[in-house]
Amino acid sequence: MGEKVRYPEPGDDLDDLFLFESKRKVQKDRTVSLNGMAYEIDASLVGETVTLRYNPSEQGKEIKVCHNGRFVQKAKLVDTYANCFVKRDRPSKTIEALDPEKAVDHKRESRPKQPVNFSRISEAEKGDGYV
User: Cα–Cα 20 to 30 A to 116, which of 7, 16, 72, 102?
Assistant: First the structure.
């Protein structure tokens, strides 16, 4: 009829047993969002789905982050000021020449070697086809 009551094992943290859980994907800027607040996560988890364990009555405090069923870290609220200076993984453009003369030479290289004579092209169309 009734089931046996399951008692916690010795050494179990009772607070841990009552934490809420939510799954989130770690964004490229190393953050996850929970209840409108951004938390900072380790960079090795970018793109991964993690489980956040938290007490809803303690919003804004540290939350526990688990990945593949294992505790990874405690996440803190993002320091938005410091986060805006973090380098992102983006392709960068290379600057080939800082010297203005070299930059001009680079522009000349992209131009045709000889000027195009359009009158010769139109004559070639009328005649034998050679320019």
Answer: 102
